[in-house]
Amino acid sequence: MIFVSGKRELSADRLESEEMEDTAPFSVREDGVFQKELTTPHARRTWRHPTGAGEAHLRAVPSSREAREHLTELVRSAIERSVQYFLKIQDQEGYWWAELESNTTITSEYIMLYTILGCLDPNRKAAMVRYLLSQQRFNGAWGLYYDDEGDLSTTVETYFALKLAGEDPGSEHMARARAFVLEKGGIEASRVFTKIWLALFGQYAWKKIPTMPVEIVLLPEDFVFNIYEFSSWARGTIVPLSIVMALRPKMRLPKHLRIPELFVSHEPHLRRRKPLSPTHRLFRLIDRVVKQYERRPVAWLRARAIEAARDWVLDHQEDSGDWAGIQPPMVYSILALHYLGHSLEHQALAKGLRALEEFCLEDEQGLRMQSCISPVWDTALTALALLDCGVKPEHPALRKAGEWLIEKQVLTGGDWQVKNCCPPGGWAFEFVNNKYPDVDDSAVVLVALERLKSAIPCDLAEKSLSRGLEWCLSMQCQNGGWAAFDKENTMMVLNRIPFADNEAMLDYPTADVSARVIEAMGTMGYPITHPAARRGIEFLRGLQEADGSWWGRWGVNYIYGTWSVLRALKAIGEDLSAPYVKAAIQWLKAHQNEDGGWGETCDSYRDPALCGQGPSTASQTAWAVMGLMAGGESESEAVGLGVQYLVRMQQSDGTWDEPYFTGTGFPNHFYIRYHNYRNCFPLMALGQYLHRNPSG
Fold first, then answer.
1. Which residue stretches of 297-414 are H helix?
2. Does domain 372-543 have CATH number 3.30.70.940?
3. Cβ atoms within 10 A of the Cβ of 362, count?
4. Residue 353 phi, psi (nearest 5)
């Protein structure tokens, strides 16, 4: 039995009179709609989702040829609407680019930065205040993602930014925010980076912040510890920030802008802290020792280190003004140059500020800043979605997309070369980010270009593909896996230093990135016997959870990881009847929601008991459906239900609505809502379904 949605009406009386082929139990709601009763452990926690523009509810019908054909018709119509939407929004240069939404700290730090620089435009400030207030939760807090009930550090930074922008601390919304902060332990319980921002304004003591001495930039690359043992994003942040922390600037604020009201005198948070591990205690001791040096640094050594850090910052700025393509290195590099005495007219500062403006968006909600931009990622994924649903590679939109992607291949050096001597050839996430191409983007672009190469001049496509795959394979780590930006970036102890309270100092190999490379290898014709593929599969098998799933580093969460791996195993030619593959398929089936979709909350990173659980979303449903189809389940009931969910939830303009965050920046600390995910992945899934079920 399958469910079908559409304009065809089927009454409950007719349904009851028809012969049912599936014996799974069904119940009838008060509104007369049949729904399957889940008997898995997941059924104890159900999730409901508002209906879309199609049918109001699932309809139970026999699994007849007529019903399957009807579903096929609905899928074709949904694909047509979505394809037309994507063709309409493509940029004339050939790329697609959608918003990358995160939490309010990004915009709050924009307000703080421009307050320090003394150039905050009143109109932009008002628009940002409007945006920040629109994101406040019912309890006064601001959260890390859509359904988060509140995050302390995010709320502290947003409250302070609003106060700097002129919001009345006596207002009802500010009072609610203040109450939340105090209930959670106040400023003392917030993260290190929040305290650094407050210290810049004299609202927190520099001496209480964990140290990051600027002298670390002088340690040679072959030393056991140096800046290249940090992840690319941490490195791009730490180097400029170490300059700021060495200078310890303090902007004097008038009394009415200070925030003593966010401190808790009795510090109840101290009683709630978990006992420290021996490693944490050791690093706290080291931090106290280093603080003694910070009181009286060696003058010539400190000056030399600051100069070296400044030169590193200037060398790592792109011609576009970006640093590493993400917000933290950008704002801290601007701060470092500002505190070193450079004027706003200085070439590096002027370019940096222009780059920040390129990250900003404004609409009816107000003005906000993105943490990053994702045109290469969006373009490659959208091209694959269009290819999956039957658009020919020779179509002008896809040909332009392919040529644009080839133009964006990074053929210059970067930090990755410290541990890898391979010639360049990867792709970055953004329009311009020559220092930091990443394996994830590169692998997806390779899959897209391999399928588009018939529409691109042969020598151009083959050369790009060859360079790209060679670079990706060269980034394989000793354990057989692949990380995002660097090779062998696995000094796990760095996540224990006091400065690293967000535990995001490393770029270690993960299942999702590794699976992407293996999928690219399979798509390009490499066999499963290739040494890199064999080592990669062994790495993936070692990371599989006991329940059959895989943890997702860059997408939420186990659904993302499991889909990624199943796609890779299918592409490289793995035996899909292998027990470990079957376990992954069964895990996906067991976590389907009663509305036919799949969803997973960001809380699953904090609490693994919530893995695979959450309100159904378009992107996560698409991942699960594609994962099942990759595992040979195209004709299964689970896939049929998932496809119908996607059809039913599609809006009249060919898009899907998805307020939930399904992208991951740093697990437990930073999440992303990719606005393209809710549209490209459902189209991809529907196209793959139609290819496997052309006539129902």
1. 299-315, 327-339, 347-358, 375-388, 396-407
2. no
3. 13
4. -65, -35
Question: Residue 696 has what pLDDT?
Answer: 57
Amino acid at residue number 630? A
Pairing of strands 366-369, 360-363: antiparallel
Helix (H) or strand (E) holding 674: strand 670-674
Can you tell me the distance from the alpha carbon of 584 to that of 568, in angstroms, rounded to the nearest whole number? 13
Average pLDDT over residues 114-139: 97
- Transcribe 511-568 into DSSP letters: HHHHHHHHHHHHHTT--TTSHHHHHHHHHHHHH--TTS----SSBSSHHHHHHHHHHH
Q: Catalytic site residue 440?
A: yes
CA distances from 158 to 110, 128, 135, 153, 202 (A): 11, 11, 10, 9, 17
Percent of the chain clearing pLDDT 70 (strictly above): 89
CA atoms within 13 A on the CB side of 404: 24
CATH of 103-369, one of 2.40.160.20, 1.50.10.20, 3.90.550.10, 3.20.20.80: 1.50.10.20
H-type helices in 201-326, by residue range? 232-247, 269-272, 278-295, 299-315
Domain parsing of the chain, residue ranges: 1-89+582-696, 103-369, 372-543
Is residue 658 helix, strand or coil? coil
C-beta separation of 596 from 1 below 8 A: no
Of 151, 415, 440, 486, the catalytic one is: 440
Long-range contacts of 491-497 (CB under 8 A, 24+ apart): 491/225, 491/229, 493/279, 494/229, 494/230, 496/277, 496/279, 496/280, 496/283, 497/210, 497/283, 497/287
**Cβ(621)–Cβ(557) under 8 Å?**
no
Measured in Å, how far apart are the chain's first and last C-alpha atoms?
14
pLDDT above 50 for 28: no
pTM of the predicted structure, to 2 decimals: 0.89
Residue ranges of the alpha helices (H) in 389-476?
A: 396-407, 439-452, 458-474
Does the fold of domain 372-543 match that of domain 103-369? yes
What is the enclosing helix (H) or strand (E) of 183?
helix 172-183
Q: Are 661 and 100 in contact (CB under 8 A)?
A: no
More confident position, 26 or 677: 677
Measured between alpha carbons, how far is 353 from 93 in angstroms, rounded to an integer? Answer: 25
